[in-house]
Amino acid sequence: MLGVAGYIALGIGATLLITASAFTVGGILALPLALAQRSRFVLLRIFVRVVVNVVRAVPPLVWLFLVFFGFSELGLRMSPLAAAIATFSVIAMSYFAEIYRAGLSALNRGQEEASAALGMSTIDSYRFIVVPQVFRVVGPMMATYGIGLLKDSALASTIGVVELTFRAGSQAQQTGQGLTVFAIVGLIYLLLSLPLAIVSRHVDSRLRARFSVA
Amino acid sequence: MITNLLSWTQYLPALFSGVGVALALTGIVIVLGFFLGLLLAYGSVSKVRLVKAVALVVVEVGRGAPLLVLLYIVYQGLPQFQLTPTAFASAVIAFTWSAGAYSAEVIRTSIDAVPNGQSEAAIVVGMNRVDSFRFIIAPQAIRVGIPPLMNIAIQFFQFTSLAYAITVPEIMQAAYFQATVTFDYFSVFLAAAFLYASITIPTTMLVSRLERHLAKHL
Amino acid sequence: MNDPLANADETAPLFLRASGITKTYKEHRAVDNVTLEIDQGEVVSIIGPSGAGKSTFLRCINFLEMPTEGTVSIGKESVAVEPGSRPPSRGDLAAIRRSVGMVFQSFNLFPHLTALRNISLAQERVLERSREEADERSYQLLKRVGLEAKSKAYPGQCSGGQQQRIAIARALALDPLVMLFDEPTSALDPEVGAEVLSVMRELADEGMTAIVVTHEMAFARDVSDRMVVMVDGSVVEEGEPHKIMSDPSHERTRKFLSAVVGR
Ligand SMILES: Nc1ncnc2c1ncn2[C@@H]1O[C@H](COP(=O)(O)OP(=O)(O)O)[C@@H](O)[C@H]1O
Ligand SMILES: [Mg+2]
Fold first, then answer.
1. Is residue B91 domain-resident?
2. Which residue range is the domain that position B194 belongs to?
3. CATH for the stretch C11-97+225-263
4. What is the C60 CA–ligand 1 centroid distance (Å)?
5. Mean pLDDT of chain B
6. What are the backbone angles phi and psi of residue A206, rounded to the nearest 5°?
7. pTM of the full structure
8. CATH number (domain holding residue B43)
9. What are phi and psi for residue A78, nearest 5 degrees?
10. With 90 as the cut, is the pLDDT of residue B20 above it?
11. Which distant-in-sequence residues (6+ apart) come within 8 Å of A203 by Cβ?
């Protein structure tokens, strides 16, 4: 049984690679989107809202197939791993854009004014007032989404990325002990999400319901 | 050009049967998940240690493990005990587990969201605990909890796509079949994406309107 | 001072008597052996600095807070709590609570029910009045507090002062022997608070028995028959309101009064 667990655990690297890459790329790409949502240009705001909402209205598996199978049919061939990272990055981007927006709108306008009234420089007011407050809201939400991303990365197994779930599947076939094998892999996911779960403890429950993903 | 741009729409009819299966699966799972959620919410505050522990583990695994893994646990795991549920039944079991775990959390937080002063006011006007729950706490908790529960329903409509992995004939299964027959992968999956979005987006908008309506007297 | 252990039947028919009430949180004695008696038609005001234990004492009277020790008697009902002995039964508590109405600082109206339903629900469920009877009586009570026009409004559609008057009507609907008010105007603007105080003043004139925790010194002086000063969980002074306010005998009372009048 240890051999089986060891074989599965070798997939941790790929799972974490997909999760961490999508988290980072999505988190960075979302910054301009979040700012664009506060832009003066109505059309830009509408465009961003449409993108964000459409991306989230379609299940990740569908995007994954569209990118992996569909794009290669159109001539854009990608490895399964690259397709998975690209897809989850775009999905993460639209969730993070929403999260940043919530964080910025949670910030009371008076806070910036108060720090200006105290004679703080813009940089200082961002450093000591704005960013810490926004992060208090955004940090736990990002952690919650990170857990969602970790779980979503299991979908990559359906296009042949050899990560945790893929390895579990092949072990289940070989040993015929599906329950044991998938219980082990479920446990590994739970353990991997533990650090993020501690951070996300403090998330408001309604936001949690809205941003939760399996 | 236009015909070319819209050529993907020709695949929509082939996916309709999948929409029916996905909606049926969602409906069954949401109803069962709600009742499981009630049980789990009740169990997770139980004074009986064992009940509480079991409820908490079921909730944590249901929320913490990838849904795909839960699907495989049921579909490929139960045969280890000589139980062989159909693919659809396996999807119902796995999704209900997960939906129940999420619902339990919503139910618990919705009840917690009713201010303490409400039950105190019920006590001082002499109501017993059953009346206080029935007339004061529950009606307010329901107004708080319905929108997130409906958001869970929308989420699970999207999650039905995962049942593709265990051969449930939902939208993605139908799409994958079409794609392998026509080799028109991009258009077929675009049609699938369109179907999901055209159900998800309007319902999401309805839920946020409902949310505002329900919050009116809270 | 009456002997707290005296049999209630032997003394004059006291309306309410809370004796030896003590409430400790961990080491902290929030209420320390406080005794208060009140006669029919009497209005007693409790004043004192924030954190003195006024709310806690009030909440011990109707067992919203379980006292660590003490006895509460109302009419023929009496419930005693002693450390280490069995807590009072639910039925005993219900009997006391039925005779006591309470008005909170934050109103605590039921937001999902109309003003009328806020008042009629408990009559129906607790006093088993018919819906018609309960509604009729609720309407009369709304009229009594000047809000019959608001009978179909939800609490969220009423101003704070209106909400508090509805809350008073809700408490009166069960015909309590004694009303408890915990800073009923503290959450309100002064002008709005005045309309609530004037309703309370009228009710007092009509013979309501009440214990009022308040920082409204003018109200306490003019309306209450007796004033109790609490500091650090204990009663430091008790007596005629005018006398206490013009010539307080306790140093802490003097300090508190100058702070309240000063603001
Ligand atoms: N639930 C509680 N747990 C711990 N301490 C409490 C609690 N409720 C009240 N206290 C403490 O008891 C004291 C009296 O509080 P309270 O009765 O609210 O005072 P007042 O109404 O006179 O302002 C305060 O020191 C307060 O901190
Ligand atoms: Mg108080």
1. yes
2. 14-215
3. 3.40.50.300
4. 12
5. 94
6. -70, -40
7. 0.86
8. 1.10.3720.10
9. -135, 155
10. yes
11. A140, A141, A143, A144
Could you give the ipTM of this predicted complex?
0.91
Instruction: With CB atoms and an 8 Å threshold, state whether B121 touches C62.
Output: no
Which B positions 115-134 lie with beta carbon below 8 A of chain C? 115, 117-118, 120-121, 123-128, 131
Is residue C166 scored above 90 in pLDDT?
yes
- The DSSP line for C167-212 is HHHHHHTT--SEEEEESTTTTS-HHHHHHHHHHHHHHHHTT--EEE
| Homologous superfamily of the A2-210 domain (CATH) | MetI-like (1.10.3720.10)
Q: What is the pLDDT of residue A209?
A: 47
Return the bridge partners of C213, or none. Answer: C46, C182
Q: List chain B residues with CB under 8 Å of C182.
A: none
Q: From the CB of C66, is ligand 1 less than 6 Å away?
A: no
What pLDDT is stored for residue B2 in this prediction? Answer: 58
Contacts A207 to B, Cβ<8 Å:
none
> Of C223, C204, C211, C103, which Cα lies nearest the Cα of C161?
C103
| Chains C and B in direct contact, meaning 3 or more beta-carbon pairs closer than 8 angstroms | yes
* Residues A182 and B73: beta-carbon distance below 8 Å: yes
> What is the per-residue pLDDT for A98?
92
- Check residue A139 and give its pLDDT: 86
- Name the residue in chain A with its Cα closest to that of B187: A70
For the segment B184-212, the average pLDDT, to the nearest whole number, is: 95
Contact C122 B126 (CB under 8 A): yes
Mean per-residue pLDDT for B148-158? 96
Total domains in chain B come to: 1
Between positions 56 and 95 of A, the ones with CB within 8 A of B are 57-59, 61-63, 65-66, 69-74
Please give the structure tokens belonging to residue A158: 């359906």
Cβ <8 Å between B72 and A178: yes
Query: What does chain A come to in residues?
Result: 214
Start-to-end CA distance of chain B, whole Å, equals 53
pLDDT of A129: 75
* Average per-residue pLDDT for chain C: 91
What number does the ligand 1 atom closest to the CA of C56 have?
17
> Which parts of chain A have pLDDT scores under 70?
1, 108-109, 112, 201-214
C-interface mutation test, from B118, B123, B125, B127, most C Cβ less than 10 A away = B125
How confident is the model over C186-199, as pLDDT tens digits? 999 999 999 999 99
> Could you tell me which residue, C105 or C3, shows the higher pLDDT?
C105
**For the residues B34-59, what does the mean pLDDT come to?**
95
Give me the residues paired with residue C43 across strands.
C210
Task: Give the number of A-B residue pairs with CB atoms closer than 8 Å.
Answer: 152
Tell me, what's the pLDDT at A111? 72
The residue whose CB lies within 8 Å of the most ligand 1 atoms, and thus the one to mutate among C22, C23, C29, C55, is C55
pLDDT higher for C84 or A30? A30
- How large is the average pLDDT for residues C228-246? 95
How distant, in Å, are the alpha carbons of A125, B118, C192 from that of C211?
A: 50, 22, 21
Ligand 1 center to residue C50 CA distance, Å?
9
pLDDT of residue B70: 96
Residue of B110, B116, B124, B132 best to disrupt the C interface, most CBs of C under 10 A: B124
Q: Is the CB of C58 under 6 A from ligand 1?
A: no
Q: C118-133 burial by CB neighbour count: b if 16+ within 10 A, else e?
A: bbbbbbbbbeebeeee
Q: Please report, for chain A, the start and end positions of each structural domain, with discontinuous segments joined by +.
A: 2-210
Nearest residue in C to B130, CA atom: C125
pLDDT of residue C123 exceeding 60: yes
